[in-house]
């Protein structure tokens, strides 16, 4: 009987791509995961970016879905025009420089004032997704700073 169970499990893993199909990269979210983040040099770990609204002079914002694999996070950074995060899936973390880290979950909204240094990303054991809104275009510039250390993250 055990051999049959192992054979079925082995076949499942072979056909589905292994353990990643069992939850490591499955995240139910309302928008596409997108491509590997073109700003990956400013992140630790694997992230994806899917642009929903490009920067323009009509709506004065840039909106994107950002998906973080477990443990992935941004560097410290700031936005001259602020940022709004709408959490859509998974569990994440957010921290402003000099303040306690916050746990984020689906439905949370984070309003980040202009020029506040911060970072955000996935919890160590969960994927995470949020909508990133950068208002006040065209003058909202992102300044990327140092990576978040493992000590700061934990």
Features:
154 residues; mainly beta; eight-stranded antiparallel beta sheet; two-stranded antiparallel sheet; 2 helices; 12 strands; disordered N terminus
Structural topology:
Blueprint: H1 2-16, E1 35-36, E2 43-44, E3 47-53, E4 61-68, E5 73-74, E6 77-79, E7 83-96, E8 102-105, E9 109-112, E10 118-122, E11 128-135, E12 142-144, H2 150-153
Antiparallel strand pairs: 1-3, 2-5, 3-4, 4-11, 6-12, 7-8, 7-9, 7-10, 7-11
Give a count of the beta strands, DSSP E runs of length 2 or more: 12
pLDDT averaged residue by residue: 86
Radius of gyration: 18 Å
The main pleated sheet reads as: 8 strands, antiparallel
Structural description of this entry:
Helix content is 12%, strand content 40%. The protein is mainly beta and 154 residues long. Strands 1, 3, 4, 7, 8, 9, 10 and 11 form an eight-stranded antiparallel sheet that branches. The chain has a two-stranded antiparallel ribbon with strand order 2-5. The chain starts with a helix and ends with a helix.
Summarize the structure.
With 154 residues, this protein is mainly beta. It is built from two helices and twelve strands; from the N terminus they run αββββββββββββα.
């Amino acid at each position: 009987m055990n051999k049959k169970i192992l054979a079925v499990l082995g076949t499942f893993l072979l056909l589905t791509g292994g353990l990643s199909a069992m939850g490591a990269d499955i995240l139910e979210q309302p928008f596409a995961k997108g491509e590997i983040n073109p700003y990956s040099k400013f992140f630790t770990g694997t992230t994806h970016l899917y642009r929903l609204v490009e920067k323009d002079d009509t709506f004065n914002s840039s909106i994107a879905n950002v998906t973080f694999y477990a443990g992935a996070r941004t560097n410290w950074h700031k936005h001259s025009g602020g940022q709004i995060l709408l959490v859509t899936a998974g569990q994440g973390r957010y921290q402003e420089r000099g303040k306690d880290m916050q746990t984020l979950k689906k439905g949370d909204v984070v309003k980040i004032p202009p020029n506040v240094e911060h970072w955000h990303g996935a919890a160590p054991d969960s994927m995470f997704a949020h909508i990133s809104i950068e208002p006040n275009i065209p003058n909202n510039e992102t300044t990327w700073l140092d990576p978040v250390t493992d000590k700061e993250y934990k």
